[in-house]
Amino acid sequence: MVQAAMDAVRRHGPGVSVADIAAEAGITKPVLYRHFDDRADLHRAVGHEAAALLMARIAPELMKNREPKEHIRGVIDGFLSGVEDEPQLWRFVVHNPGEHTPGAEVVDDVRQTIASLLSSLIGVRLREADLDPGGAEAWAIGLVGMVQSAGDWWLERQTMSREAVTDYLTTLIWGGVAGVLGDQDAAGPHAPLRLLPPTGTGEPT
């Protein structure tokens, strides 16, 4: 039924009705409500599945052993590609005006998961450079929020390609990280800033 609800959202948009969802599932509304407490409960179930789809794009990018600038680019592009491929689901979970509150915790969970991973990576690099890692979590939360806001803008405007948005955001984030570390050479477009330990070791490079 959740899959049918997702298909109904794709077909009818974020304002999809419960009747539309029931019709997509081939059942009546009373039967649908035997499985969900109310519309908010259904909204939450769809939100969790949509969040899983998005995390399936982003998580592998965080796990790859690659140059950190390419890490940044991969995570941003993974997020934007998820939004681009499922725009109606994204709008339903994040921006559905009638059901924003019930789904808000789903969005918060995804944001917090990504931010926690980024915070850990940033903290490792700061400690390696003998710098105060106290701001790592705040920076990670800020970065996630910036990319989400830019993704919302891009989804609605489509004034440039996904590749261009990814390049702009990567350049901004990369320059900021290099500036915090006081490494002017690292701000160059090809300079490496290693945040992840190499595969098979527990020590950062």
From TrEMBL:
Does the keyword Translocase belong to this entry? no
Task: Provide the HTH tetR-type domain boundaries.
Answer: 1-54
- Which residue ranges carry the DNA-binding annotation? 17-36
Coiled coil, from the record: none
InterPro entries from the entry? Homeodomain-like_sf, HTH-type_TetR-like_transc_reg, HTH_TetR, Tet_transcr_reg_TetR-rel_C_sf, TetR_C_32
Write out the entry's keywords from A to Z. Answer: DNA-binding
> Sorted alphabetically, which Pfam families does this protein's record hold?
TetR_C_32, TetR_N
One Gene Ontology MF term: transcription cis-regulatory region binding
Its protein name is TetR/AcrR family transcriptional regulator
Identify the species of origin.
Pseudonocardia petroleophila
